[in-house]
Each structure stands twice: as C-alpha cells, then as structure tokens.
Specification:
alpha/beta; two-stranded antiparallel ribbon; 447 residues; 9% strand; 6-stranded mixed sheet
C-alpha cells in the first residue's frame, strides 16, 4: 500500500499499487505532453529562424555570384570583340596573300600547260614510232612461234610413235615376266607339294646357311655358325651364331629358329607360337639374342615390314623374313662391337681404378705393417730399457750386498785377528780349564 498526502487539505490516505501506478501515469503523461508541446513550439521557432537566416545568406551569395558572373561576362565580351577585330585583320591579310598566290599559281599553270602540250606532241610521235617497232617485232615473234609450233608438233608425233613402241615393248616384257613368274610359282607349288614338312623347314635352313656361307670368308672370319645339335634339355634351336674379337673374347651370340610351312597346310601356325620355346632355347644355350626367321603369316603387315622387335614379349627377340637374315646379323654384330668397345674402355678404366685401389691398399698395408713393426720395436725397446733399468737396480743391489759382505768380511777378519785363547776362555772357566789342561799336556810331551 502507498500513502498519498493531499496538497490542499493535508489529509493522508492510502491507495493500492494499481491505483498508485495509475495516478503516477496520469501525472507523468500530463507532464510529458506539456514538455512535448513546449519543445515543439521551440523547434518551430528555431526552424523559422534558420530558414530566414538561410534565405538571407542565399540571397547574399546569389547577389555576389551574379555580380561576379556579370564582371566575367563583360570581360569575355571585351575579349571577344578584340578577338573578332584581330581575326578580321588576319583574314583580310590572308585573303590578300591568297589572291597573290592564286595569281602566281595561274601563271605557273599556264606555263605548265604549254609544256604539257609540247611534251604530249613529242610523246605522241614517240608512241607512234614505238608502236610500229613493236608491231614489227611482234610479227617476227609470231612467225618464229609458228615455226617452233610446227617443229614441236613434229616432235610430239615422233614421241607418240616412240611411246607406243615402248609401251608395246614394256607390255611384252611384262607379259613375259608374268609368264615366268607363273611358271616359277607353279614350280614352287609343285616343289612344296612334293616336299614334306621337314623338307620345307630344311630348305629355309639351307637357304640361310647358304647366304651366310657366301659372306663367311670375307665378313665373318671369326664367326661360328652351326646347327644346334644339343638336345639334352629336351629341345634345341636350328642354328647358333657366335663371334669373337681378335683377342678371343666372345661379344655376340644369337639363337636362330627357321620356320616355314606349305600353302596347303590346314592348320596355320603363328609366329608367336614359337616365341616361348625359342626364348627357352636361348637361355639354355646361353645366347644373347633370339631371332625367328619365319615365312609364317605371309599376309601380316607387321611381319612383312622385315624386322620386327618383339622384346615386349621376350627380351632381345626379333622376327625377320629370310631376305633380312644377313642384315639382321650385321645390325646386331655392329651394335655388339660398339658395346664391346665401350666395355673394353670401361674395363680399362676399372683396371686403372683397381690398380689405384691396389696401390692404395698396398700403401695402407705397408703403413699398417710399418706401424705394427714400429710399435713392436718401440715396445721391445722400452721393455729392454726397463729390463736394463731393472738389471742396473739388481746390480746396484748386488753391489750394495757385495759391499756389505766385504764390510762384514772385514769385520769378521778383524774379529778373527782379535780372537785369542784368552778371549775365548774369558768368562768360561770350563773352557779355560780345558785349554790349561791341554797346554800342560803339550808341555809334558815336549819334555
């Protein structure tokens, strides 16, 4: 409960919270509206004053700007008038100069027209003369061309006749060659028909061996080319080629396999059917390369190129047609010779390195042995010095002992010299009696 005191009667009465809040809100709203109206009136008056002030300042600025623009306009007008006067004077001067130049140009034009007229007349005469000369020369050239055309026509006719004769001869020769080829084909077909499969293969082998033997004496003096007859491992190739250098070092070896078949063979073999066995033979006979000389797959564009590298299937393996038998050997041989030269140079370098390493090893071994001998000699020297020192110490001790013995002997000698019966029997009555008795006995015997 809140207490409220009446300002008129001074009575104090109590109201609840809601009533008190309503009274406070009424008083506050009334005061707020009053203050708001006062602020609004003040704002309107300040606004009017600011508008009047801004209008006054704007009018002053506009008046100043108008006066400044009027001054600029007057200055521009005077400058324009001066420029117009200057331009008119220059224009009049230019017009006078142009009229003078035009008069000079007219005089020059009239002079040039006269010159052109004279030159035109001279040129017309020259042109007429040149045209007549050109016409005469052209007529002469046309006559010459007609004569050349006639000659060329005759030559062409003659060439046509020769061409016909040559074509006829070529046709006859071609027909003769075709007939011979047909006969040769028929012969080989008959030859193959009469041969067994083994004989067909042996004929290719014989062909390759014959081709090699033609060049063996001149190009392959150090070469070995013989049939592979070693079938201990269950299979063998056809031929083995090996070659050595003048020092007897083998630098190339090739395993050859020759394959051929009859045209009428029902089951056609492929070249790749023999790759695995050929690679096996190459490894068993310790050959570097493997070459299949094949007449198989006669329609294959790949193998008909001549030399086919099949190293992607088996390393260092090639398939060739028979006509590339000798070129293949030559290629591999030259490559191996180059490799041999590089190997020899590498071997020389390795030997030099080995010699250097051996020299260094010998030097290190000598140093180690020398150090060992020096160490042993030094140890023995120090040991001998130690032994000498020990011997010196021992001799010194022996010397001291001998000197001590000598002193003792001297003392003993002195004591022996000082020894007498009287001294021996002193304080010993028994011995004194014995010696006295012995002395008396000796005296009696002497009497």
């Amino acid at each position: 409960m809140q207490e409220i005191k009446c300002p008129k009667c001074g009575e104090v009465f109590q109201v609840d919270e809601s009533g008190y809040a309503a009274i406070v809100r009424q008083v506050r709203d009334k005061e707020f509206e009053k203050e708001l109206s006062e602020r609004k009136a003040q704002y309107l008056s300040e606004k009017e004053n600011a508008v009047l002030l801004a209008q006054t300042q704007t009018r002053q600025e506009l008046a100043e700007e108008i006066s400044r623009l009027q001054a600029k306009l007057a200055a521009a007008e005077s400058a324009r008038q001066l420029a117009e006067a200057d331009a008119r004077s220059r224009q009049e001067k230019l017009l006078s100069e142009q009229e003078k130049a035009l008069s000079q140009k007219d005089a020059q034009i009239s002079l040039l027209n006269a010159k052109i007229t004279s030159v035109q007349e001279t040129a017309d005469k020259d042109i007429a003369l040149a045209v007549s000369k050109a016409a005469a020369q052209k007529e002469k050239q046309l006559n010459e061309m007609d004569r050349q055309i006639y000659d060329l026509t005759g030559r062409i006719e003659h060439a046509k006749q020769e061409t016909k004769l040559r074509e006829q001869n070529i046709k006859e020769q071609y027909e003769e060659r075709l007939r011979m080829k047909d006969e040769e084909i028929a012969y080989y077909k008959d030859f193959k028909a009469r041969q067994s499969t083994k004989m067909i293969g042996e004929s290719l082998e014989q062909h390759c061996e014959t081709e090699f033997n033609k060049l063996r004496a001149t190009g392959f003096q150090n070469a070995y080319f013989e049939k592979d007859n070693d079938a201990r491992t269950g299979s063998k190739g056809d031929y083995i080629y090996k070659e050595t250098d003048p020092d007897g070092i083998e630098f190339i070896s090739i395993m050859f396999e020759m394959k051929n078949e009859m045209d009428e063979t029902a089951t056609k073999k492929k070249n790749e059917d023999f790759f695995k066995e050929l690679d096996k033979d190459r490894h068993e006979k310790d050959c570097e390369y493997a070459v299949l000389v094949s007449m198989l797959e006669p329609d294959s564009e790949l193998y008909n190129t001549g030399i086919v590298d099949v190293s992607y299937r088996y390393p260092k393996m090639y398939v060739i047609r028979p006509q590339f038998f000798i070129p293949m050997i030559t290629l591999l041989r030259n490559a191996s010779l180059n490799a041999l030269r590089y190997k020899q140079e590498l071997a020389v370098i390795k030997n030099q390195n080995i010699d250097i390493s051996h020299f260094e090893e010998d030097m290190n071994d000598f140093k180690e042995k020398f150090n060992r001998n020096f160490r042993l000699a030094s140890e023995r020297f120090h040991r001998a010095i130690d032994e000498i020192d020990k011997t010196i110490d021992h001799l010194q001790k022996t010397k001291e002992a001998l000197l001590s013995s000598e002193n003792n002997l001297r003392l003993a000698n002195n004591k022996a010299e000082d020894l007498s019966i009287k001294r021996l029997t002193k304080n010993n009555p028994t011995m004194k009696a014995k010696f006295d008795e012995l002395s008396s006995h000796d005296g009696k015997e002497s009497t």
